Amino acid sequence: MSLYSINTPIIRPGDNIAKVMINALEKEKLHLKDGDIIVIAESVVATSQGRLEKLDQVNPSEGAIRLAKEYDLDPKIAEIVLREANEVCGGVKGVLLTQKDGLFVANAGVDSSNAPKDYVVLLPKEPQKTADGIKKQVEKKTGKKIGIIIGDSRVIPLKRGVIGVALATAGIEPVEDCRGMVDLFGRKLQVTFRAIADDVVSAAQILMGEADEQSPMVLIRGAPIKFTEEPQQEMQLSPEECMYMNVFQLRHTN
Predict the structure, then answer these.
(1) 15-26: per-residue pLDDT in tens?
(2) Residue 123 and residue 158: Cα distance in Å, rounded?
(3) Cβ atoms of residues 107 and 91 within 8 Å
């Protein structure tokens, strides 16, 4: 498997991500092939959609002021988090743990990094529809069958640092069902699924970085992923299926 970082100009509201990608590939002298995958940072997708909030135009509510005081946050950031989150679950100094669109995420995805001065960037709207649209545009222009992943970085419990996660995929099977496969000792796997799209995003983020690298896209070639227009597995679990949710709910009720 080979990975190639794709440097782009600074993305601005209204930019067409597919066109930016194609132009950047040409500049890097990279030519798409059938079976290539492009991982795109969610922040540039959101920026192109105009998903930016100017902090001096935000008036914190009483609830935001209380949260900001409790968790040592800018009240304006706390207000935007309240607007974006489906639920605020708690937090630590400087960060709120929230649920948004069925997933746990810090600050509901509200992020000041890689946003213009005095702005924050939000999570993109309709990431699945957006990934499908980018794939369609790029394939029409290049004639190649590719996969698209919109990626983000998240924390996981009791681990320091961030890892990659896929917000949306197009053209690939994002999760591999390993149940029924046989291990080295002949035992059949009973419950294992591989979050392969998340694995690919994590690999891409080694080149993307988290600071001023200006490489918000990565071309991945030769990844062991099934290409399909009709994926069979969903990336998200219901709360009832989630081990963490079940354990913590049980402890809370006891």
Answers:
(1) 999 999 999 999
(2) 24
(3) no
Residue 96 · residue 24 · CB < 8 Å: no
* b/e sequence 105-122, b meaning 16+ C-beta within 10 Å: bbbbbbbeebbeeeebbb
**Which domain covers residue 88, as residue numbers?**
52-123
Q: Which residue has the tokens 């919109």?
A: 150
Domain shared by 190 and 86, yes or no: no
Burial class (CB in 10 A: 0-12, 13-18, 19+), 101: middle
The last residue of a domain, from among 98, 123, 148: 123
Could you give the CA distance from residue 204 to residue 220 in angstroms, rounded to a whole number? Answer: 8
Same domain, 130 and 214: yes
Model pLDDT for residues 202-236, shown as the tens digit of each residue: 999 999 876 666 789 999 999 999 999 998 888 88
Does the predicted TM-score (pTM) go above 0.90?
A: yes
119 & 131 share domain? no
Beta-bridged to residue 181, according to DSSP, are: none
Q: What is the CATH number of the domain that holds 142?
A: 3.30.1330.100
DSSP state at residue 158: T
Are 135 and 229 part of one and the same domain? yes
